[in-house]
What we know:
Elements: E1 6-10, E2 13-14, E3 20-24, E4 27-32, E5 39-47, E6 51-61, H1 72-76, H2 87-104, E7 111-112, E8 127-135, E9 138-144, E10 151-153, H3 162-177, E11 192-199, E12 206-212, H4 220-228, E13 233-240, E14 252-258, E15 262-266, E16 269-273, H5 286-297, E17 304-308, H6 314-319, E18 325-330, H7 333-345, E19 351-355, H8 358-367, E20 374-377, H9 386-394, E21 399-404, H10 407-418, E22 422-423, E23 426-430, E24 440-447
Parallel strand pairs: 4-6, 7-23, 12-13, 17-18, 17-20, 18-19, 20-21
Antiparallel strand pairs: 1-5, 2-3, 3-4, 5-6, 8-9, 8-11, 9-10, 11-12, 13-14, 15-16, 21-24, 22-24, 23-24
Helix pairs in contact: 8-9
The protein binds S-adenosylmethionine (SAM).
Amino acid sequence: MKKNQIVDLKITDLSYQAMGVAHYEGMTVFVNNALPGEVVTAKILKVKKRYAFAKIEEIKKESPDRVTVKLNQWVQTGLASLAHIKYDKQLEFKRNQVVNLLKKAHMKNVEVGETLPSPEQTGYRNKAQVPVREVKGQLEIGFFRRHSHDLVPLTNFFTTDPEIDRVLVAVRDLLRKYQIPAYDEINNKGEVRYLDVRRSKATGEIMVILVCLHKDFPQLPDLAKDIEKIKGVTSLILNYNPKKTNVILGKTDYLVFGEPQITDKIGDLKFKISPESFFQINSLQTPRLYNLAIKQADLKPKDVVVDAYSGIGTIGLSVAKHVKSVRGIEVVRDAVKDANANAKLNGINNAKYTTGKAEKIMPRWASEGMKTDVIFVDPPRKGLTPEFIDAAVKTKPKKIVYISCNPATLVRDLQLFQTKDYTFNRIDPVDMFPQTPHVESVTVLERTGK
Ligand SMILES: C[S@@+](CC[C@H](N)C(=O)[O-])C[C@H]1O[C@@H](n2cnc3c(N)ncnc32)[C@H](O)[C@@H]1O
């Protein structure tokens, strides 16, 4: 097989990154945008030892699950790489990810629920973080083409709240008006690197964060005055990121106008959110995810609860009024400040959040003799660490409720829990990210030993 070769392929599967999978002369070929059941003529783009990448030249037989996508760029950029598949098939795809990983790990007798659909399938994101770059001599916002830093200009981000798209475009136009340069990542020059916009569905407040190379620039006062006039915008923050790095946000925020936080709601509780703090991006699906987790936790008034990887305390504070106490752990200092302030804001006085790495704090608590009843964990994609798992089980919780955004690390961690007298019999996938291959899920582990 050679680069640029044209081949006919029968697509038999969908990879976990949503690429069509075919086999050709002993090689596995990943075909962008192709669906199982399709027959395509494809051009080989890259050849490795055992696999290759290809792109479709022509679809000879189309899958009945294919839907027409208004903008090809949504699929090309990875912004919405499942958008060409019917929604019910997307849900099936996500469930299958979990089923296949369990099978690979020889984990039997586990029921995998149907994926809980999201109430909104597009426009559901309450936050957008979009790169700003110069393309053909003009400042543009958009999304990077998959596996590259080539900006594809966009104004409709499809999965983002349309009100956020409106603000993104308005700010882009102002950056052009004041001739503020886009970031040039090759030479680490220019000014605006990213636009980060958050909108609270509950209050309508909109926070704009300009991620900039410098702390200040001459046009900032005039730009700020105009941004303040954009309908709905309640605060502007300059995030200072001087480094040559792929990390989006720098370490320092400067408040240009408005409140330093945005207020959102989950159920009856209010949450104040700082720019660096994590907040679930699918506002309508979040309470449904939490309810699924909390219902299965079967909490009692005497329970001591740990909320690990707590963000701004959304899970722990949602249960605090029904249990004895909540202790939370979170690594981002501002998020911990938000969590403790959010406890006060909601009249909760039995919840306390601590700054630090969960894999360091949990062993400390265990060695101090802490006993728990229920532990909620909601780690980032890399999952838990053996140190955390060891310490968590030492505190002897009846239940560990694992909210996961990566089924591969989930299954790895569940295997380790099984060696420590914890068992589980079902996993419930929840669609937090429609049109993308991301799989969220809830698993409840129960203690079997004494
Ligand atoms: C998927 S978010 C969940 C947040 C929260 N439970 C929620 O539902 O909004 C994961 C959180 O873990 C935090 N985090 C990442 N690594 C961590 C670590 N080693 N120890 C503690 N927290 C960590 C992140 O800052 C983020 O707030």
